[in-house]
Amino acid sequence: MVSKALAKYIRSLHQRKYRQRHAAFLVEGAKSVLELLGAGLAIEHLVATPAFAPQLAAARAPLHLASEEELTQLGTLQTNAAALAVVRQPALGPLLPTLPTTQLVLALDGVADPGNLGTLWRLADWYGLPGLVLSEHCADPFNPKAVAASMGAFGRVPVWAGRDLATWLSELPAETAVFGADLHGDNVHRLALAPRGVLVMGSESHGLSEAVGQALTQRLHIPHGPGGRAESLNVAVSAAILLDNFFRGVS
Amino acid sequence: MVSKALAKYIRSLHQRKYRQRHAAFLVEGAKSVLELLGAGLAIEHLVATPAFAPQLAAARAPLHLASEEELTQLGTLQTNAAALAVVRQPALGPLLPTLPTTQLVLALDGVADPGNLGTLWRLADWYGLPGLVLSEHCADPFNPKAVAASMGAFGRVPVWAGRDLATWLSELPAETAVFGADLHGDNVHRLALAPRGVLVMGSESHGLSEAVGQALTQRLHIPHGPGGRAESLNVAVSAAILLDNFFRGVS
């Protein structure tokens, strides 16, 4: 049973304001909730259908049963026949003055769509990146769409935030490579890129902000195919192509 | 002014059933509507705010003025301060028994999310592919989210459909290369791929169908980064990485 008070609390977490106030967020659907169980995050509540509940037997959190209809009404998915969880937001990692010098970090400069943010998080997880850096004005990583699109990366790849991105980049040690995508940059196919430093991806509508652009040490260009006419690529798609080029030498 | 009858017609096109019945679809927002003007598609109606209308002066279609609020209520975007268009659906191209032998075609096997479908369409446009093939059970390419995510590709890259994908693939000339993504396939970094044949991408939840899998001539694997743990990548992200690998030799 889900009490009226709990239902109200859960539904409040659809909104960023209440996610921040309560420092909590929702994880929804069978796959994401099962990923959550191994993630080491603190779970406040689990809500599951009777059919799915046995799969949550090992979880250390209060378990509430609900019909598929009730569960769907509590969450943001079009339908949910499995479960949702209310989870404590982990503290965002601070943006430190230095980086792991042997790894590449992905930084997002105003990526506003939660689905794109989640897809980029999933990419960071695929490439084993140590963290995902968010500028101000990015989508909320605890938005249910970002969490869903991350496909479990929310429990594995830490998010670092809390400082102005351009200032942080400009204060990194001088030898830190800072890469950004640019239509007039160097063709990535002609470079031997090593996965060390920071790769910054700009916002969907405005690309990189001017201040961040000034902190770049190299601009990278993804070539069109012959006859290709699209003006640009989706931000997650661009990041994917760049990351594959960074990791060609090591995989 | 938008008449009540026109408003009702426009809103009906939010639903696939009515898009099919009327063989029409919506194009929304400044960028997409401006792309539309050069696309050679038949426009039934344009609705624009007075501020945006001058940019549509050259269009050959009835222009209706509406406030930003009215316009937003007619369409599917969260806000629309510019314009929307009602456009005739172009006939989908038939799946012919042979392919342009010097080009690569992207085929989607049950890609169900309209945003993913649109992002893949945009990718096909970036790489200059001659067409996008859709199996049955794909999202509707004329879904407003697919049209928006295609970023103008809806007017440049034709969609081919109308036959069972596996049957079509199996009946292509024997020398046609048919590629698909597979976690156990060949590492794309160790291959010299030429952009000729068909690249098939599977559905978000089930990957390639068994029948399509049997028609493949080569399975391709995108390597993880060291320590990477995500089980899979988003379908558009995977397609992007594969296409970049196909076109490395020519760009």
TrEMBL record, chains A, B:
Superkingdom of source: Bacteria
A Pfam family it matches: MRM3-like_sub_bind
Keywords linked to the UniProt accession: Methyltransferase, Transferase
Residue ranges constituting the MRM3-like substrate binding domain according to the UniProt record: 8-79
MF-aspect GO terms: RNA binding; RNA methyltransferase activity
Record-annotated tRNA/rRNA methyltransferase SpoU type domain positions: 104-243
Any one Gene Ontology BP term: RNA processing
Family: Belongs to the class IV-like SAM-binding methyltransferase superfamily. RNA methyltransferase TrmH family.
PANTHER family on file: RRNA METHYLTRANSFERASE 3, RRNA METHYLTRANSFERASE 3, MITOCHONDRIAL
Name listed for the protein in its UniProt record: RNA methyltransferase
Organism of this sequence: Hymenobacter polaris
